[in-house]
Amino acid sequence: MKQVLVVQYSQSGQLSDVLSNLIAPLLADPAMEVTVETLRPQVPYPFPWPVLRFFDTFPEAIYLDPPPLQPLAVDPTRRFDLVILGYQAWFLSPSLPVTAFLKSPEAARLLRDTPVVTVVACRDMWLMAQERVKELLAATGARLVGHVALTDEAGSVGSFLATPLWVMTGKRGPRLFGLIPRAGVSPEQIRNSRRFGERIASVLTRGEPLDGHLLENLQAVRVNERLISSERAIRSGFLVWGRMLRALGPQGAIQRKPLLLLYIVWLVLMILTVVPLAALIKALLTPLTQKRVAAQKAYYGAPSGSR
Q1: Higher model confidence: residue 229 or residue 23?
Q2: Residue range 191-196: average pLDDT?
Q3: Any idea which fold 2-222 has?
Q4: How much is the mean pLDDT over the chain?
Q5: Three-state secondary-structure class, residue 114
Q6: Is 154 exposed, middle or buried (0-12, 13-18, 19+ CB in 10 A)?
Q7: Coil, strand or helix: which one is 191?
Q8: What is the pTM for the complete model shown?
Q9: 213 or 286: which carries more pLDDT confidence?
């Protein structure tokens, strides 16, 4: 019997819905045993988020400072044929509970020499978060064999307002008679994530190797090349702001709040100016940099990018 471990952390429930659809074929297969591990921070994160607390998690998220987790239910000495890791993207980084798991001694034991498929559901700015996940997985000795990235149906522009309003009110929308679209991944995308589970079940059942071809040609990943430079630039700024905020004290410290307000203003200005400008420059230079752009898309989409 094949053993599959699913590790997840979802606040709104969207990622849990994605994973439920994805693993449905595995659960239906009598040759599979699926264990689901839901990460539980010792101090729970709220949903919806109070505005300042949301932004106050940013320095620790960007610097991958792990919060304490409650003990895992799964025995860390168990061996699995595959681990499916579901995460959210927080400030171009994996969510803090997932960071805490990946940095834990338990993860090092569970993931060593084990194939891993990562699953993210978020806005279409997930590239830098996945880079951090790759680094953390490599540190445990895991083998990344697949990646699924489902992005908001509202697109880059529409999700600029839709996603923060969802995060801070708990309501997806749409709003203002549709001027602000519905936040989140579309129900159709969520339902169709079942196809990844069907492929995984098929490969495991046949005893084929779990490698970078696992989710090939399933449209598991779409890299928006216009956002590559934007994500890099914003992450560089995040590191500077995060360093300053951490120097003022831990999460919740009152002395952080004035600088947090300045950071919020900076972030909005970056999204309104740097992101569209970088996208425009990228589009204008594409005819001259086609090979470089293709190489970037292949790199960030690996191992499940479009062929």
Answers
A1: 23
A2: 98
A3: Rossmann fold (3.40.50)
A4: 93
A5: coil
A6: buried
A7: helix
A8: 0.94
A9: 213
How many CA atoms, within 13 angstroms, populate the side-chain half-sphere of residue 6? 25
Q: What angle do CA 58, 61, 67 make, to 5 degrees?
A: 115
**Pair type for strands 89-90 and 93-94:** antiparallel
CA distance 92 to 125: 7
Give the CA distances from residue 225 to residues 89, 202, 232, in Å, rounded to whole numbers and listed in that order.
18, 32, 12
Smallest Cα–Cα separation from 184: which of 170, 195, 196, 198?
170
pLDDT in tens, 31-87: 999 999 999 999 999 999 999 999 999 999 999 999 999 999 999 999 999 999 999
Structure tokens at 86: 């579901």
Structural tokens at position 61: 């998220």
Instruction: Break the chain into its structural domains and give their ranges.
Output: 2-222, 228-296
Question: Are the beta carbons of 15 and 84 closer than 8 angstroms?
Answer: no
Nearest partner of 163 among 7, 8, 274, 14, judged by Cα: 14
